[in-house]
Design brief:
This protein is an alpha+beta fold and 309 residues long. It is built from 13 helices and nine strands. The protein has two domains: 180 residues, Jelly Rolls; 113 residues, Orthogonal Bundle (Arc Repressor Mutant, subunit A). A hairpin with a 7-residue loop joins strand 4 and strand 5. The chain starts with a helix and ends in a 6-residue tail after the last helix.
Length: 309
């Protein structure tokens, strides 16, 4: 197991959508900021991506490039920056057929939309910039996946939804991996997972959060003395091993509480607390409210669409 794979598995996206479109100028499309993560790539031609916020520079999309856009402000795609745009429903109605496929001015592009779940997913999204352009050189797996997506979307075929779902997963993993590898603001756990002095201990924590880990045991897994391990861990992650373990357990606990699939006794067990009382005490100390009350607040928030306004 690797930490990025673990985070992606726990943040499993839902209702993923991927659409291939052929459009000849003039054209434009608005995409709502409520989409948690959008993935855009051009197969043929050129397109531009821009925001209402003038501090965000328009991004030109060329064949082989992939651009991730995190939720927040609305964003737009068109044949040129500031082009007149349509809402998605109108746009699909106008560009539902490949009538411009032979037009040399036409752009063939793919748009994907992903929704992550829970605090693990939010942590992944928060580690990404608002807009992230990635260039896929010849031989880059990103380019290969884009080609496969385009071919699969060209015509309907048996099992196509499953194929598209898997290809979108692969595209997203490759894009996030490239982003984290290149970014100086990548999550600390990602950078630390590449450190041979820390990777084994981090994997152990993520594989079995319920285990009663201690600093000496984690240091032994890492092949370091207790003092050297504690110092290296704090320098890399900005907190002690036990603080990191508690934070990870609380992250898991919030997601378990939110989805409602486990009772408090089971959550206590899988997050390493000996009893529901011990778990409730730790949760209250960490969040200032008991787990039951926290879950009720979350349910009330998600059931009320005006709660965030």
């Amino acid at each position: 197991m690797d930490l990025l794979g673990d985070h992606l598995a726990r943040a499993r996206a839902s209702n993923a959508v991927f659409v291939r479109t052929v459009a000849a100028p003039p054209w434009g499309l608005r995409l709502a900021g409520s989409i948690q993560l959008s993935v855009h790539t051009v197969v043929r031609g050129r397109a531009w991506l821009w925001f209402d916020d003038e501090s965000l520079t328009p991004v030109e999309l060329a064949p082989g490039d992939v651009t991730l856009v995190r939720g927040g402000p609305d964003h737009y795609i068109g044949h040129e920056p500031g082009a007149t745009w349509l809402e998605p429903e109108e746009f699909r109605a106008c560009h539902s057929r490949d009538e411009y496929a032979d037009d040399p001015r036409a752009t063939v592009f793919l748009c994907g939309a992903y929704r992550f779940s829970g605090d693990v997913g939010s942590g992944l999204l928060d580690a990404l910039p608002q807009v992230l352009p990635l260039s896929a050189a010849v031989g880059d797996p990103l380019r290969d996946v884009i080609g496969l997506l385009s071919s699969e979307l060209a015509t309907a075929a048996p099992g196509q939804p499953t194929v598209l779902d898997r290809l979108l997963d692969i595209l997203l993993v490759l894009a996030i991996r490239t982003s984290f590898r290149q970014s100086p603001t990548a999550p600390r756990w990602y950078r630390a997972s590449a450190d041979p002095r820390l990777s084994a201990a981090l994997q152990a924590i993520h594989e079995d959060a319920a285990h009663p880990w201690s600093v000496p045991e984690l240091a032994g897994i890492s092949g370091l003395s207790r003092a050297a391990f504690a110092r290296t861990f704090r320098e890399a992650l900005g907190q002690t091993p036990m603080q990191y373990l508690t934070d990870w357990r609380m992250t898991l606990a919030r997601d378990y509480l939110r989805n409602g699939e486990l009772g408090l006794a089971k959550i206590a067990e899988v997050t390493g607390y000996g009893s529901p009382y011990a778990f409730a005490t730790a949760f209250r100390r960490h969040h200032g409210t008991p787990p039951g009350a926290w879950r009720r607040q979350e349910l009330a928030h998600t059931s009320n669409p005006l709660a965030a306004h």
